[in-house]
Amino acid sequence: xxxxxxxxxxxxxxxxxxxxxxxxxxxxxxxxxxxxxxxxxxxxxxxxxxxxxxxxxxxxxxxxxxxxxxxxxxxxxxxxxxxxxxxxxxxxxxxxxxxxxxxxxxxxxxxxxxxxxxxxxxxxxxxxxxxxxxxxxxxxxxxxxxxxxxxxxxxxxxxxxxxxxxxxxxxxxxxxxxxxxxxxxxxxxxxxxxxxxxxxxxxxxxxxxxxxxxxxxxxxxxxxxxxxxxxxxxxxxxxxxxxxxxxxxxxxxxxxxxxxxxxxxxxxxxxxxxxxxxxxxxxxxxxxxxxxxxxxxxxxxxxxxxxxxxxxxxxx
Amino acid sequence: xxxxxxxxxxxxxxxxxxxxxxxxxxxxxxxxxxxxxxxxxxxxxxxxxxxxxxxxxxxxxxxxxxxxxxxxxxxxxxxxxxxxxxxxxxxxxxxxxxxxxxxxxxxxxxxxxxxxxxxxxxxxxxxxxxxxxxxxxxxxxxxxxxxxxxxxxxxxxxxxxxxxxxxxxxxxxxxxxxxxxxxxxxxxxxxxxxxxxxxxxxxxxxxxxxxxxxxxxxxxxxxxxxxxxxxxxxxxxxxxxxxxxxxxxxxxxxxxxxxxxxxxxxxxxxxxxxxxxxxxxxxxxxxxxxxxxxxxxxxxxxxxxxxxxxxxxxxxxxxxxxxxxxxxxxxxxxxxxxxxxxxxxxxxxxxxxxxxxxxxxxxxxxxxxxxxxxxxxxxxxxxxxxxxxxxxxxxxxxxxxxxxxxxxxxxxxxxxxxxxxxxxxxxxxxxxxxxxxxxxxxxxxxxxxxxxxxxxxxxxxxxxxxxxxxxxxxxxxxxxxxxxxxxxxxxxxxx
Lengths: 316, 495
Prior knowledge:
The structure holds 2 protein chains of 2 kinds.
Chain A: H1 2-29, H2 34-39, H3 45-54, H4 61-73, H5 87-122, H6 127-141, H7 144-158, H8 174-208, H9 211-218, H10 223-252, H11 255-260, H12 266-275, H13 279-307, H14 309-314
Helix pairs in contact in A: 1-13, 5-6, 5-8, 5-10, 6-8, 7-8, 8-10, 9-10, 10-13, 12-13
Chain B: H1 4-20, E1 29-34, H2 49-55, E2 64-66, E3 72-74, E4 77-82, E5 88-93, H3 107-118, E6 133-140, E7 143-148, H4 155-158, E8 185-191, E9 195-200, E10 213-218, H5 222-230, E11 236-237, H6 246-251, E12 255-270, H7 280-289, H8 292-300, E13 305-306, H9 329-338, E14 345-351, H10 355-370, E15 373-379, H11 382-392, E16 397-402, H12 423-434, H13 438-454, E17 458-471, E18 474-475, E19 492-493
Parallel strand pairs in B: 1-10, 14-15, 14-16
Antiparallel strand pairs in B: 2-3, 4-5, 5-7, 6-7, 8-9, 9-10, 11-17, 12-16, 12-17, 13-17, 18-19
Helix pairs in contact in B: 7-9, 8-10, 12-13
């Protein structure tokens, strides 16, 4: 088990180094000078040069890469070109929106998907199953930003229960914060729940046709009892994998929903950073997201190894 | 069926609800929607319009300022004397003024601010405003003398820009994140990505403002902006990004739609240094191929004023030269034939992100195709546009709105992306700078406008309109946009 973990850990570190080089070089070749962007249409060339020097953009490539990468190692993400505040502060603020939103959305989608998937599987081909499959098909097909707009139309503009967007900050209280995240979380959770419910159903149906279920049924268990006692636990593995993937997606990929609800999340920070050529913010946030995704993968790998002894033996 | 009795009952019910509702005092807070978030809050260290849209006149003040009509008014300098030769300006400063951190404002701060802006290593985006200053001398705490190296008729105008506001040596370095000015509002808090909050300055030296606090909320998405307005999350959106919904908002009694003018001359630049646009006949042909009204209707939902030269139509010195380049495809074809392009030619059109450029560009391309000019469109991000067309002059045609006030002088700059070099025009600009007599200045400004129209330097499309939405109970917002600002000093709620 130790060898397996070390092996995984090594490949994780190598991925991070590779990712940092790719991210750095990619942003080097992006056209656009951050200093020229900030100073606009009327600035004289020598003013732009003065700002470039102030921002440290004139140092050689390797020196800038090492400066950035070593800084990351001890938590120094640099100073944002445009905002002029430490990038780590910006990220910390945004994580306080993105992470709760991702957890909220994932919680909702799991709460919806589990019962729905189980009901559909246990009543296979019944009217309930068919209608659940129909509704989830729709849920997968509806773009979440469009669904978000419908939510705003219904609950913000017509009923006026929620604000149309924005985030008051956690200083305004837990309730206010959660309230602001409710519509975005629902908008994000609907397609995720639909996918998850379908995976849950098919995974359950697969395990229900396994030999050990037939044995259990032969022992005298009803279909329901076999499902709850034996099939469910085994059917969870693919479902957990999907949840892991969805979490990474929700953390980094909620940008469209963040735009619809004008939430100050990580996705919008990256987007803004790219358009304003605040490259140091882009580099650091993307790196952080890569780290998050790789860590989630690592945790999932470890969980597999715990669940499946064969994996542990293979790595020796 | 509507009976008199029913109407009466309805009226009675209405009267009852009105009588029962408690008498609320007028609100003293304001939520202002903005499309772009300012990158920082230091107006002396960046060109972004969003900076001034938060801080101009609210947090920072200059020696002079623009009022809502664009006229220059006294601000921290309550009066001034100009010497006979136009070289020395003696400013008499307001007294008892303090910065928000408690330090006092006096002549030393004026010297510091101006010297900082014109210094060698200055990163002021409009450094040219200060180029003619030879020296700044403190006479006494309330008097400062600015000496110019040559007369500059627009010096007081220049000092009204957001880039020329007064800052203090104690706080200037931190203004980007924590702005400290002398204005009627103080900075409270900036939640990056979400909002900036400002509050009434209780120690303000001038007329106190009526609002107790104001929050600028940043909403980039047009649909989200509309939703925020409808849901009451923002009270006003001075530059509303969804013009297609203005008719709907205007019909709603809760809102006022405010249509005003801006300083944004929207033009299609032609690279005068590159064939075939180095030929004035080709430029004239392109100008006649363009139907301005069609672009205004199609790309701007009807909001905008056609222009025939690089000047704001609401300026008293404006000359309407649109007929000189009116829509005449036949004339355009004839001119092209004269220039040796009877079969037309191929060219490229590079478009930055704003909708006037993207939507306008599509319409222009089809109009040019009608006279035989085959246009290939490339969409660009701002940063790309600044690097390519703007800095490296790497373009044939491009569309952009020049939003600085009174910026006709850019046509006299040799390094500018138009690649237009004309000694006669430069002479007019030099004369304009050396003239302080208003009548003569008007004459020169009109000569400059005619020169640009005669040379067909660019295709002058339209003056950008300012289309805003506000709660119907808000008074005192600027209708026009003589500089990019949301001056809240005169804003209040009525019951």
